[in-house]
Amino acid sequence: MSFELSREHEDFRQSVREFAQAEIAPHAARWDRERHFPVDVVQTMGRLGLFGLTAPEEYGGAGEDGDFTSLCLAIEELGRVDQSIGVTLQGAVGLGINPILTYGTAEQKDQWLPDLVAGNTLAGFGLTEPGAGSDAGATKTKAELRDGQWVVNGSKQFITNSGSDITSLVTVTARTGTRDDGSAEISAIMLPTKTPGFVAEKAYDKLGWHASDTHPLSFQDVRVPADHLLGDQGRGYAQFLATLDDGRVAISALSVGCIQACLDMSLQYAGERQTFGGPIGRKQGVAFQIADLEVMLQASRMLTYRAAAMKDAGAPYGEFKQAASVAKVYATESAVTATRIATQVFGGYGFMEEYPVTRFYRDAKVLEIGEGTSEVQRMLIARGLGLPVE
After folding, report:
1. Which of 185, 371, 375, 390 is catalytic?
2. pTM higher than 0.90, yes or no?
3. Could you confirm whether 371 is annotated as catalytic?
4. Per-residue pLDDT tens over the stretch 221-234
5. What 3-state DSSP class applies to 259?
6. Could you give the C-alpha distances from 231 to 103, 108, 235, 236, 246, in angstroms and in order?
7. Helix, strand, or coil here: 208?
């Protein structure tokens, strides 16, 4: 299988890079400092078609001109200047649009996708709870079908794009019954954010991703029609696990953007910073660290593009799932290491907020956690190799 980028992909990458440099890079530090979610820029991204890269033309998407690889390229280039904006696109498409696109009825798609694809609105994906993170099967949120309506009670946490001024919908997993073996039946329910009883709590005070919209959610007798069930009843957990496989590749792309930024910043600084009569880049101690960044960048990018190409080519699910976990664990851990190296290259200046390297350092850690922790990825990889790991 070839996963070389086409000329169209390279041209698309360049267009997103130019947009990111012109419209995001000059403001990223301020957005981070002020914890500002830039709705106007997000909607501009919509007008550029970035939210429709995996959607058919009938909903305003790119159709045959777009694919999953294009989405990963866009996330990478946005993440190269601002990880918060990169994850905003990743969450909006991978967790908001794609579940509806994959599992929604024709009526659900017609109702929600045009505005989501256009970037007029955002949707979130509510899986994690205080007691159900990696163990998502421990979901406590409940949904009961009463008189033709789902009545939802419970809470979710760490939900991206869930409380912004343009968030219109959050799809959540909820217990809708008990199976014959005593395990929970988990289904996916679409909850419009303006429904009475739906509350987006105060935004988190996070270590990083300050310009990303992230909230805990609570539901008190939230009532929606029965037709707000997404996919088949009792298949919500399986649907969301499949959604996470795509998300892991997208987070890998975000990590590649982070590593690229670290390499860019380190190269520039190592060429400009003078010590002992010359640039620090001529010192092996610095040069070798920057060389390591290039190694991590190339390996992470190749693993990510390979997984994205497998997705676009319709590779067998088991093979794609394995490739997604491999890319995710390697790229995210490399990104964390890359920010540490870049901070070290900058020395004392790397500890000062006036330099963007500090923002990337803070932003990187969550890459190893979101969309399945590194520990979960290693468990999945081991299972894929036939090991009976628990």
Report:
1. 371
2. yes
3. yes
4. 999 999 999 999 99
5. helix
6. 5, 10, 7, 7, 17
7. coil
